[in-house]
Specification:
This protein has 185 residues and is an alpha/beta fold. It has a single domain, classed as Rossmann fold, CATH 3.40.50. 46% of the residues lie in helices and 15% in strands. The protein has 8 helices and 6 strands. Helix 2 links the parallel strand 2 and strand 3. The N and C termini lie far apart (40 Å).
Amino acid sequence: EVSPLTRKRCIAAGRLESQKNFRDLITAWKTVDGRHPDWTLSIYGNGRQKDALQSQIDSEGLKGKVILEGNTSDMRKEMLDSSCLVMSSRFEGFPMILLEALTTGLPIVSYDCPKGPSEIVTIGANGYLAKVGDTMTLAQGICSVISNEELRSRFGAESKRRSENFTLERIMVKWDSLFREITGQ
């Protein structure tokens, strides 16, 4: 099942901590809201920065536009009810949230933080990457996905196609190959 990409909502998720850098995402959304005031951003997760992020949302005039949703027991359901996944992390291991977005056919706009995003997102194929800290380029990527339904649909289809590269079977073949290489078999 994939998202129909028709709801005017973007989604982000993670601990509300400095690593996830939601402050930058809220700053970027101010630009997005100026161009697309009918769209919203839902941020899922909890953490120490919740109050500070809510204060930023309020002071930027984004109340009701950027919503801190708290935790959800069904992230897949929320993704299926969204049209784009956004990630503003400063650094990641291998971000599972991006893989989940692929399986639901979501376009992805992300900071190109070390480890992960550039292995999952190809600029202009299934989303956009911005340099960490470049809120304007992040906002422009989001606006491109929002404003062009055909592009959003194409990116979504490519995300779903790419999710096949991360199935258990394919990953196990890669692990097996790596172990054989290491052991010289």
